[in-house]
Design a protein that fits this description.
Length: 389
């Protein structure tokens, strides 16, 4: 379960972490109460041992602090010490601390002590009668200063908690906005790529209208299949390599009609790599580049090889042509520029697109990216996150 990102005054820890926080509060005050009892037992100036009323009195004191601690945390959240208002708010917090400390001392002396320690907890007077302290005497003697110091310490912890929760929420919000920005960039790149691809394909169709009507009919059928693929997969950033190769087969069928017998295509992709995820339409601009700058500028028969191989956790895709070489393919086209931008947006520094000379002449375009499948993504999404405390 991922924590929700809350905004404005509703900023708080998620419900499941609030339960853990309440348990921590109870645990801390229980520990402090236990240490207080141990200190009184070890104090040579006090009575030997502790009676059940003594334990009940100390337990009630610290239970009261455990009850009001969430309220103090809430005050720290509602009135944070922000720039410009820190002085006034700090003064307000201290005033509230004095009032609450005095009230707690009244409850302690006027309610808890008579109820739980009727025989007197403060020893006896010289005549043998139990020592009595009324709430007013306690206030006049400023016995509430201990409660004031404890309140200020809890308030400081509340400020630290609120800062941490706000920082966590801000980090989550920043990550969400960065993801939305990346998605918008990818959508813009995809919308730029699709018309670019479509216009080039329509240009190939128009070139054959007069000299090859039968070929045009085949081109229109293939173009219909390509457009259906683009529309069906347009919302997905990644598709399987198998789906990408199937799309390229339809695209290259169009190019075969255009070049007649001058285009030979070889696809060398192992079956076990078919489930690997790759960016949608990542290979089409590379193949188009090979057709335009390689086969289109060669007087001999053109050859395009499409390959894929896996090396550990990396996947390398290659598109090789036997054209005139890098002099005709500088990598500055719209399709290649968009492909590089999409790879950077999806994978950062873990992916790259490079052009280089092919063995025997021509150009080889290489795309290197992390190897992953849809199953890997589902497994990662199902992994539990560490608990928030």
């Amino acid at each position: 379960m991922r924590p929700k990102v809350l905004h404005d005054d509703r900023l708080a820890a998620p419900a499941w972490s609030r339960r853990a926080e309440l348990a921590a509060i109870v645990g801390v005050w229980t520990l402090l109460g236990t240490l207080t009892l141990v200190r009184r037992i070890l104090d040579p100036r006090g009575p030997a041992g502790l009676s059940l009323p003594d334990v009940a009195f100390v337990g009630a004191e610290y239970a009261l602090w455990a009850l009001i601690t969430p309220l103090i945390f809430r005050m720290a959240h509602v009135l944070p010490l922000e720039r410009g208002t820190a002085g006034r708010r700090l003064a307000g917090h201290l005033a509230i601390a004095l009032v609450v400390a005095a009230l707690l001392e009244v409850i302690r002396v006027g309610v808890l002590r008579p109820l739980l320690l009727p025989d007197g907890f403060f020893g006896r007077m010289s005549g043998g009668a139990p020592a009595r302290f009324t709430p007013w005497i306690a206030l006049i003697r400023m016995r509430f200063l201990d409660e004031f110091v404890i309140y200020v310490a809890v308030l400081a912890a509340g400020f630290a908690r609120d800062y941490f929760v706000r920082y966590r929420a801000h980090a989550a919000e920043t990550a969400r906005l960065e993801a939305q920005l990346a998605e918008a960039r990818l959508a813009a790149l995809r919308m730029q790529l699709n018309p670019h691809f479509l216009f080039n394909t329509l240009h190939a169709v128009s070139a054959l209208v007069e000299r090859d009507p039968a070929g045009v009919r085949r081109l229109v059928a293939r173009l219909s299949a390509l457009l259906r693929h683009v529309l069906d997969s347009g919302a997905r950033q990644e598709v399987s390599l198998r789906e990408e190769i199937d799309f390229l087969r339809d695209y290259l069928d169009i190019q075969r009609v255009r070049f007649r017998d001058r285009l030979d295509v070889v696809v060398d992709v192992a079956d076990d790599l078919g489930d690997a995820l790759v960016p949608n339409l990542v290979l089409q601009p590379l193949v188009e580049n090979a057709v335009v700058h390689g086969v289109g500028r060669s007087e001999d028969a053109g050859r395009i090889e499409i390959g894929a191989r896996r090396a550990a956790e990396r996947l390398e895709l290659t598109v090789t042509d036997n054209g005139p070489g890098l002099a005709g393919a500088d990598g500055a086209g719209v399709g290649l520029a968009n492909t590089r931008a999409r790879l950077a947006a999806l994978y950062g520094d873990e992916a790259a697109l490079t052009l280089g000379p092919a063995p025997g002449g021509g150009v080889v375009a290489r795309v290197a990216l992390p190897y992953h499948t849809a199953t890997d993504l589902l497994t990662t999404a199902a992994e539990p996150e560490p608990a928030y405390a």
